[in-house]
Structures are given as C-alpha cells and as structure tokens.
Design a protein that fits this description.
It is built from 1 helix and 5 strands, in the order E-E-H-E-E-E. The chain is mainly beta. The chain has one domain: Beta-grasp domain (Ubiquitin-like (UB roll)), CATH 3.10.20. The longest helix is centred in the middle third of the chain and has 7 residues.
Length: 73
C-alpha cells in the first residue's frame, strides 16, 4: 500500500544521545551532515570500514563513534 516509514529511535553518536531515522551507518553519516568527509567509524566499539557502512544496520541503543582526521600539530 503505502511507503515504509522508518520510526525514529535513539542512539549515541560520539557520546551524545541522538534521535535518528537512519537505518544504516551510511544514512546516519548523511543525516549528520558528514557528506563526503573522510571519517573513521565504529559501531558498539567495533571499527566499521567505509565499504560496509551501507550494509551496517543501526538499532536502538547503538553507540556510534565518528572521527575525522585533523591537520596540524
């Protein structure tokens, strides 16, 4: 009948409680405004390579870390 609508749920992103409707890690990065920024990611303490972010599903209560490289010294 109608389109499937994802319900919002809460996860931790870099230690902050965040409400999201993203079903995958890649969708979360887009939702959070990372776009094409090169970042490292982890889900529940486990590193997630960029090539599998699209298939890495999110669940309520997940803890996501997003880290970008910094310039300078």
């Amino acid at each position: 009948m109608g389109q499937s609508i994802h319900s919002a749920f809460k996860i931790l992103v870099n230690g902050m409680m965040t409400e999201t409707t993203a079903s995958t890690l890649q969708a979360l990065l887009a939702e959070q405004g990372y776009g094409d920024t090169r970042v490292a990611t982890a889900r529940n303490g486990t590193f997630v390579p960029s090539r599998v972010r699209e298939e890495t599903t999110l669940k309520p209560g997940d803890s996501i870390e997003v880290v970008s490289a910094r310039q300078g010294g």
